[in-house]
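Rotation project, supervised by the postdoc (A.L.). Task for the rotation student: set up a whole-complex structure prediction and record inputs and outputs verbatim in this book. Inputs entered:
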Amino acid sequence: MSGVSYIEKILGSRELLYTLLLLSVILPIIHPLGIPIEVSKRTRDVYSYIETNLRQECHVYIEVYYEVAARGELEPNLIALTKHLFDKNCKIVYGSLSAFGVIAFSLFRSMASDLFEDKVYGRDYVYLGYIAGGEAAAASLARSIKGTISVDNFGNRLEDLPLMKEVDKATDFNLVVIASSGTDVFAYYVRQWHTPYNVPLLFAALSVIAPSIEPFVGAKQAVGMLVGQRSAAEYEVLVGRLGLGIASMDAQSTSHMLIVAFIGIGNILYWGKRLSSRRGGGK
Amino acid sequence: MSLVARRYTPQIIVTIIILLSIAFYYLYINRDVAGAFSTADKALSDWAVIITSFALIVGGIDILRFHLTKVRKEGLKQAPFSLVSIGLLVTMVIFALIGWYISYSNPAAGIAITTQPQFRWLYLNLYAPADAAVYSILVFYIASASYRAFRVRNPMALLLLVTALIVVFGNTTIGGVVWPGFLPLRDWIMTVPNTAAFRPITIGAGLGTVVLGLRLLTWRETSWMGRRE
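Outputs recorded:
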């Protein structure tokens, strides 16, 4: 066995790669490296939009549409955005077009309990719970929330909640935030909330689906987009509440660098073998 | 069942729904017309919400039927897996029904289906960790695949690799330490070449949906009724 093949065999073993990957994720979380983070223009634009366009006590609708698996990327974004909106005394109505959203909201609420400490349920924020129906439900909510559902996630009658006396339809909201791990729901809101009622949309998406919804942002159908953990970390820096986003960035850096290193080594070995076989063939 | 009941009635219903949906969405000529439409428009979308809610019940029954059929056909080999699925399904439904009953009998308790303690406990402690664990496993496959598959075999593969590296470095904090230009370059890739590639796909999907709508409207599309013609 040649030297190149031997090295390739060792590096090619899944056990080695998996162990190194596990360590590259766990160790930076235990011992943070503290690599400084630069805030990108796109994240700063989202922050500036909220700062300049939303007045005090504005109304915001937030769609919580992600499963627990996507929590690592989207929950820090949601917490940072909620912090920013609550700092401006905005009133928030949360809703979910996905059944998973209920548990995602529950976990988000417990992770961000400090943000809700001085907020009163029903007056400052409301969670509608799961609303079945996909795009049809989005269309129905845009016309009338109280006409679509009569109780919130906790069984409270919507007409008894003070916040729900102030808002009912799409045009009552100054901004709609969609935190989603699926691509379809962004299109639902573009078609049913933005196009007919011109409600500003803001996207918070997983890194892996962000490319597919980028055209909506480019076409100004959304005011901006926060993408994955990096945007969450940047937004945490901007709002001054460091959390899971920034804590995970070191782990993201080391694990990504490990993968890059393995890609590099894989290519060196590949070209080494290719060139040596060419030389061998020429003899 | 007669041909009328099996074929024509569902198609007539679908045709009416399509025509109404088009009218409600596109024919907002002025406020008066919009006002006249709004009640019927709202009713139509409410129907969709109600039908979807009932479809969830049908889905639950279908899962039950699927597993019972599978156990009957495959016997003991399949039984343990199906038993776990059926057991969990029934358990969740029972706790959900308890929550639903409490929400009506004692609204002051503030307990609904999803906030029923046992339902919530199972969801948080059984489903949530399992879901997160399954998704987390992906990272190992991706890492392994990137090592094996990302080979620069030709100039196009080199272009793909360079683009991927820029995005990866742009997504990490260490990228900014290596070269501050990675972040704006990543944003440019996402907003310009990526959008240029995805916009035709989005438009194509939209046109495909229009064609599907037209096929449904002209009764050429029948696969949704369970037949191919």
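Student's summary: Residues 216 and 222 of chain A are 6 Å apart (CA to CA).
Supervisor addendum: Chain A has a mean pLDDT of 91.
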